[in-house]
Amino acid sequence: MSSAQDTKVSRVFAVVNAHSGQAAPERVIQTLRTHLAAHDQDCEIHETREHEDLTSIVRDAVRGGFDTIVAAGGDGTVSAVANGVVGTDARLAILPLGTTNVLARELGVPLDLEAACALISGPNGTAHIDGMKVGEFCYFTQVGVGVDALMIHDTSEVDKRRMGAFAYVWTMTKNLLGYKPRRMTITADDRSVRTRSLQVLLANCGALGVSGLRWGPDIQVDDGRIDVCIFRPRSPLDYPRIAWNFLVGRHGQETRLTYLRASRSVLVQANEPLPVQGDGEIITQTPLTVEIVPRAVRVVVPAKIDDRQGQSRTR
After folding, report:
1. 236 CB contacts (<8 Å, ≥6 apart)?
2. Which of 51, 163, 248, 261 has a CA positioned 20 to 30 A from the CA of residue 194?
3. Domain of 118: which CATH number?
4. Using an 8 Å Cβ cutoff, are 299 and 107 in contact?
5. pLDDT tens string 93-110
6. Which residue ranges does UniProt annotate as crossing the membrane (predicted)?
7. Domain co-membership, 110 together with 224
């Protein structure tokens, strides 16, 4: 992950989801204000309400001159807030309060509240991350068709609060026992694959939840392309082998896993309507069309430059 270093924060607009995670919103707000005040920075706070259009609220804030927009919540909150920043010079800052916090983990944003607030107040850097556009909305971690969408659909808020990330594991296990692969056609740019698939995952982030595992070895959030992972087990007997190859990082040796890459668009068609999840929320159903948006959002990250290819890239 590359970043331009030591970017200064001036005007901050913070969106706080009071229903995310275990931290009380009052503590989140006070901690953020304390860190910003120590650097002579002020902050306007917006606490979320049901059925409001967060993206429009954030767009208004950006038009009003706020140059740093804080998303305090889970991946769904981060996604909604980020859409108000897409294509602007404002930066997205993340206070990870959710169950999995996939994007924060991918970008190296601290999961600890104090440390995350300290990052926002600076010093910090800026990364440019890609987006996956479905309709008029962008998603930034993964878009999935198959058992992951069913898992998200069937995991209750009560279970997430009680069991954390394990709630997803439990729901996934129950869904796998009765789920059969569906006939699908997946087109990534100009290449098409027809197959029976248990899961099709469009990965902008490589992190697989909180497990420490990754969907693939070379998935990067800022490389201008999307990796499409197609799972094709013939029976439940294939599941342990697939899981083992993921665990030891042998994705390329797994015969029931196919990878496609796209830099323009992805189309997923199924022989029946299937739910689709984006950034941890159910968003639509198949057929699914996704447009890749390179460098969609500027994001506050730790001030360092990753030399992935032997030379630094400052963005």
Report:
1. 176, 177
2. 248
3. 3.40.50.10330
4. yes
5. 999 998 788 899 999 999
6. none
7. no
